[in-house]
TrEMBL record:
Pathway: Carbohydrate metabolism; hexose metabolism; Carbohydrate degradation; glycolysis; D-glyceraldehyde 3-phosphate and glycerone phosphate from D-glucose: step 1/4
Gene3D superfamilies assigned to the protein according to its UniProt record, in alphabetical order: 3.30.420.40, 3.40.367.20
Domain Hexokinase C-terminal: 225-462
Reaction(s) this enzyme catalyzes, per UniProt: a D-hexose + ATP = a D-hexose 6-phosphate + ADP + H(+); D-fructose + ATP = D-fructose 6-phosphate + ADP + H(+)
CDD domains assigned: ASKHA_NBD_HK_plant (cd24020)
Domain Hexokinase N-terminal: 20-219
Alphabetical keyword list: ATP-binding, Glycolysis, Kinase, Nucleotide-binding, Transferase
Lineage: Eukaryota, Viridiplantae, Streptophyta, Embryophyta, Tracheophyta
Entry's Gene Ontology BP terms: glucose 6-phosphate metabolic process; glucose metabolic process; glycolytic process; intracellular glucose homeostasis
Family of the protein in this entry: Belongs to the hexokinase family.
InterPro entries the UniProt entry points to: ATPase_NBD, Hexokinase, Hexokinase_BS, Hexokinase_C, Hexokinase_N
Enzyme Commission code: 2.7.1.-
Record field: transmembrane: none
Protein's UniProt name: Phosphotransferase
């Protein structure tokens, strides 16, 4: 009790409130600003579709020609590689009436040595896992006579695609560092490994996780027009008319629609509400100047934004009584799930806040007033982030002519930031209501598609199958 009173006595509460006001003002997202951001998103989308390099938004062509309709039938596989784990999936499709007859999957960890080893070792390991998974097919897994197994490959790393079933690795991320793979077609590498491991299977589709999420949602609901990832990182994709894509390669067949992978984490606008905290975070990051949009709200960064504001208060206003707690200066020690947990704390004495701060920073005694300050910081950061996402969604709606229209549009959503952070989710829906009005927002539905990217890849293999059967 004495420690708490001494801590409270040393805090410069005037400076605390001034610092929080500065942060709140810098993060402000009034309706007018959100409307400008939605307009800028729309403008940048058009510029990115006009030519490569025309916008901070890459607006990458996925070469998806046919989205799953529900009519697909047969046995298909999915492989979802996006980090230190990968997922293999098997799905038996029964056509329009039976839909998904059976679905099985396994999650496998990649040994760290393979993430920095040789190209052949990595892909051989993946093919070995596939071989074992295929060997477990039951009698109810029915491959049509004369048909080869087909696989959809979700590969969540930067690739340059020229077709639905090929893609050259631009660079590794997420801890992978195998230099010899860069510049190679990852589909050919996987295909060669499957031959070496005697897996008789064809890669029918190469997609990223956002496109897979959209496809998985579209299979269940024809109104799905967008895929959105709100997790450690963030990205969006949507269904576009090819007639609206000036940069479509000449000489290539032009389907009516395709999916555009926006890479929206790199969106930039002069109207983005950035603060010095954000500038410092960006400068300290592994990619300064890149992913400006994503760094304002994604799960990778939201916790560290909150930590940096708390650190500023500790340094400038003696929030912890004049001392700087251990670990408070360590980047990313406060994670976004921690922020979500604190933000959800509605107890009178905010016990969860004290628990999280003790675990993260080693602070054993935390007055209730200080806990309230931390909740306030969480609230400012989460509100800003959620409202920015809403503005981005509205920008996409405008591009596809569905903003404020009396037509139902569904967003296929995946990612822990949306699924496990109720306050963030609530702010996002509230902001959509502000931007679109009551009637307009009622026609925009966000459907959670948990781990949908692997299933989506298998479904895209089905819709692009060389031996597609219609039930």
């Amino acid at each position: 009790m004495v420690v708490k009173k001494q801590m409270q006595k040393n805090v410069n509460w005037g400076r605390v409130q001034a610092t929080i006001k500065e942060f709140r003002d810098g993060c402000a997202t009034p309706l007018q600003r959100l409307q400008k951001l939605a307009a800028d998103m729309h403008t940048e989308m058009i510029a990115g579709l006009a030519k490569d390099g025309g916008s901070k938004l890459k607006m990458l062509l996925s070469f998806v020609e046919k989205l799953p309709s529900g009519n697909e039938s047969g046995l298909f596989y999915g492989l979802d590689l996006g980090g230190t784990n990968f997922r293999v999936l098997r799905v038996q499709l029964g056509g329009k009436d039976k839909r998904i007859v059976k679905q099985e999957h396994e999650v496998v960890s990649i040994p760290p040595r393979l993430m920095i080893g040789s190209n052949e070792d990595l892909f051989d390991y993946i093919a070995q896992v596939l071989a074992k998974f295929v060997a477990k097919e039951g009698n109810d897994c029915k491959l049509a006579p004369g048909h080869k197994r087909e696989l959809g490959f979700t590969f969540s790393f930067p690739v340059s695609q020229q077709s639905i079933d090929s893609g050259t690795l631009v660079k590794w991320t997420k801890g992978f560092a195998i230099a010899e793979t860069v510049g190679k077609d990852v589909v050919k590498e996987l295909q060669a490994a499957m031959v070496r491991q005697k897996v008789d299977m064809r890669v029918a589709a190469l997609v990223n996780d956002t496109t897979g999420t959209l496809a998985g949602g579209r299979y269940r609901n024809d109104d799905v027009m967008m895929g959105l990832i709100l997790g450690t990182g963030s990205n969006a994709c949507y269904v576009e008319q090819t007639s609206a894509i000036p940069k479509w390669p000449s000489g290539l067949p032009k389907p009516e629609i395709t999916v555009i992978n926006m890479e929206w984490g790199n969106f930039w606008s002069s109207h983005l509400p950035k603060t010095k905290v954000d500038d410092d975070l960006d400068a300290d990051s592994v990619n300064p100047g890149d992913q400006a949009f994503e760094k304002l709200f994604s799960g990778m960064y939201l916790g560290d934004i909150v930590r940096r504001v708390i650190l500023k208060l500790a340094q400038d206003a003696c929030l912890f009584g004049g001392s700087i707690p251990k670990n408070l200066t360590s980047p990313f020690v406060l994670r976004t799930p921690d922020v979500s947990g604190m933000h959800a704390d509605e107890s009178a004495d905010l016990k969860e806040v004290a628990k999280v701060i003790k675990a993260a920073f080693g602070v054993r005694s935390l007055p209730v007033e200080t806990r309230k300050v931390i909740i306030e910081i969480c609230d400012i950061a989460a509100q800003r982030g959620a409202r920015l996402v809403a503005a981005g969604i509205v920008g996409i709606l405008r591009k596809i002519g569905r903003e404020g229209k009396d037509v139902r549009t569904v967003v296929g959503m995946d990612g822990g930031l949306y699924e496990h952070y109720p306050k963030f989710r609530g702010c996002l829906h509230e902001a959509l209501g502000e931007l679109l009005g009551k009637e307009g927002s009622a026609n925009v539905v966000i459907e959670l598609s948990k781990d949908g990217s692997g299933l989506g890849a298998a479904l895209l293999a089905a819709s692009h199958s060389v031996n597609l059967q219609k039930a």
